[in-house]
Amino acid sequence: MMRSALGTAPDFPLAETHSALQRSSRVVFTRAGKGRKSTLHDIEEHYRHSFELSPHIPWTAAADGLILDVGPQWLSLVGMPRQDALGAGWIQALHPDDVAPTTERWSHSLQTGSPVDVEYRLRLVNGNYRWFRARAAARRDEQGCILRWYGTVEDIQERKLAEEALRESSAFAGSILNNSPDCIKVLDLDGRLLFMNEPGLQIMEISDFPLLHGRCWEELWPASAVPLVRQALQEAAAGRTGHFSASCPTARGTPKWWDVLVSPIRGPDGQLLRILAVSRDVTRTKQVQQEAEQARRETQAAAQRFEAVLESTTDSVILLDQDWCITYVNQHAARLLRQRGLSLGANLWEAFPEEVGGIFDRHYRRAMAEQLPVVFEAYLSSPGLWLAVHAYPTTEGGLSLFFRDITEQRQAEQERWRAQERIAHMARHDALTDLPNRTLFRERLELALSSVPPGTQVAVLCLDLDGLKAVNDTLGHPAGDDLLRQVAARLQTCIRGSDTVARLGGDEFAIVQTRLTEAEDAADLAQRILDALAEPVELAGQPVLISTSIGIALAPGDGLEGDGLLKAADLALYRAKAEGRNTLRFFEKGMDEPLQARQALKMELRRGLIQGEFELVYQPLMDLHENKVAAFEALLRWRHPGRGLISPAEFIPIAEDTGLIVPMGEWVLHEACREAAKWPGPVGVAVNLSPVQFRKQGLVDTVAAALAASGLAPHRLELEITESVLLQNSDANLAELHALRAVGVRIAMDDFGTGYSSLGYLRSFPFDKIKIDRSFVSDLPDDPQSTAIIRAVMALGRNLGITTLAEGVESARQLAALRTEGCDMVQGYFFGEPMAAGDVEQMLQQSPRI
Ligand SMILES: Nc1nc2c(ncn2[C@@H]2O[C@@H]3COP(=O)(O)O[C@H]4[C@@H](O)[C@H](n5cnc6c(=O)[nH]c(N)nc65)O[C@@H]4COP(=O)(O)O[C@H]3[C@H]2O)c(=O)[nH]1
């Protein structure tokens, strides 16, 4: 109800309504007659009860809208007395917000006469507002003019609340649907699309849902997904929730992956009404998953490739993370280090505690710290391996260790080094005494001489051991070796660590003494050595006395050149030896004169040969059976322009040293053969051959050429050799001798008895003659020992069928003794000194007889 714009509300007496009803009843009653009087009353009562008991509040209003009357419930409900509500008083009870729309609506009906139907809130007795619905319709007269309005006020609070709740619920559902990121669809039980939320339309890129409305949902999926869709729908139809994942493009063809939940929608009584399908766009997630899967596969493939490479390499590989934990061990490494039982995740240093702080530790930490590869070789004590290691820092902060077992290689290298060291040692040391040899001695000497500190001197001491030969001869070579070793040991006790004692060969030793402050230091050392070696040496259980001579040269006084100093010390040694054994001598100026003279002679020898200063003299060899000259020995002379005739004893050794003996000997052969060819038939010529000539190729050819050139019969030529020819290179020289013999010449052994094994050599070659050294002849006939030796040699010659010749016969007594002993031939001044070639012919003409 509302306050009308028409002014105060007219009375709306319920009684009038009541009487109006009574009037209409009366009409009815009138039609029904008096008999129906009670029935009318009943009707009246009925309406009265209807008005009073109805939950609706009746009201009437005048044609102008002023309330004429209102039902009694008004007072109890609103707490407003009926009179206050009449006219437009009822408006006081309206909610302020509802006044305007209510009066507007009421005014409209008043103007148009249309029924009114309006909802508003009324303030109740308790002060709360409650929703009501007011409805009214107009009663008109016969002309259609509105007489009155009849209406009710109905309590619609419950409906309103329900509507509000529904609205809120609907808004809530709408907000959920429209704010959901998912595509939410409602399907009927046949799986046809009924609804799709707004975001769903957008995600599916559907611009016109009505086109899809009623379509079968599964038809919208690709064929591959249809079984999944059906399965999920069946689940939902069975009252459960179906779930599947499948790809399905949007309406515009954009590829999408969906994660779909399909569940039933039930009615209030639990019956299945609809099906709800919620599709979540998982395309990105799927892509991420696929990318992750792809990345995982690629990583796995890369890891497999990497592992395959690591497994196929011949190296052992261990990978470590930044905490030294083992992240990978290839099979080589596992095998190589199987004793250590490496396991993934183990800490390297817990696996190898003994290596903490060691060489591996240092290198690995350096590689990590400097982020640089480190290459090294080291020995892993357990299991006892030499490893060549390459450690590379990884980008993750760890290390990749590649290593290889080089134990065998190392052992081979060490063996090789040891062998090389042994060879190098042997090259510089004497095998017998292990003292430095001449080579190392020279190096040490040069080193010492290269920096002689001011105020100091370097001494070179040369030692010659007396008695080695005797020990060899009497006690045998092992005893001689033992002697040398004992001498070496004693010498070493005499020197300081900075000095060097060396064995130069045979019985020769030498010492480099450094940092001498005076010459006396060298003399003291020499004396210590003499004293040390004066003590008897025990050899083969016997005490043996030896002695030594020492020559000393000093640098810088005697020179600063190694060779010169050694020579000077050698000269001093010769002087010491010459002046009596077991003594020492310092080098003095002039000691080298013989050496220098020898040097000068060496130079002149070549010139003399070129200039023909050599000539041959001939000494007769007498046949004691025939008592006449059997042959002549050709002996070389050097007619030096300044020094006159020089003895072969002086120049032959030099010629041998320089090799000049070869051309010189060739000249002698030719000259002797040429001269002998002039002599009468049986007279032969003997020529001396040097061992050096045997060493040179072509001796046989030279002899043959000399014979051929001279025309001398080969048997008239006799070649004299000494046993030294057989001492050196004996097999080759023996072959050469046989070849010479094959030419037809005779071979004689010269100086028989002076060597060590003259007798032995007689066995090795069938000599034609042996020439007994004159040292055995000189004491004849008075020395019984010499006589005995001569007798023995004669017997030997006779038994072996070898001609014997005694050299150096100077007297008739010697000749007689030799004749008595049965000597075949003799030679000596007694028969004639070596003579010029011209004198030979003269002598032969005289044909002297003994
Ligand atoms: N005290 C003494 N000596 C006597 C007597 N009878 C001879 N002699 C010397 O004894 C040496 C004998 O020669 P040899 O033993 O072959 O010893 C030779 C020989 O080995 C070597 N020789 C000489 N000529 C040649 C040669 O043409 N070639 C070679 N390779 N060596 C030669 O030189 C050595 C010395 O020769 P020569 O000085 O000529 O000395 C000769 C000779 O003059 C004597 O009764 N008493």
UniProtKB/TrEMBL annotation:
SMART domains in alphabetical order: EAL, GGDEF, PAC, PAS
TM ranges: none
PAC domain ranges (all copies): 116-168, 240-294
Domain PAS as annotated: residue spans: 43-113, 302-337
Chain ranges of the EAL domain: 598-848
PROSITE patterns referenced in this protein's UniProt entry, alphabetically: EAL, GGDEF, PAC, PAS
Domain GGDEF, residue spans: 456-589
Domain of life (superkingdom): Bacteria
Name of this protein: EAL domain-containing protein
Organism expressing this protein natively: Teichococcus vastitatis
Organismal lineage: Bacteria, Pseudomonadati, Pseudomonadota, Alphaproteobacteria, Acetobacterales
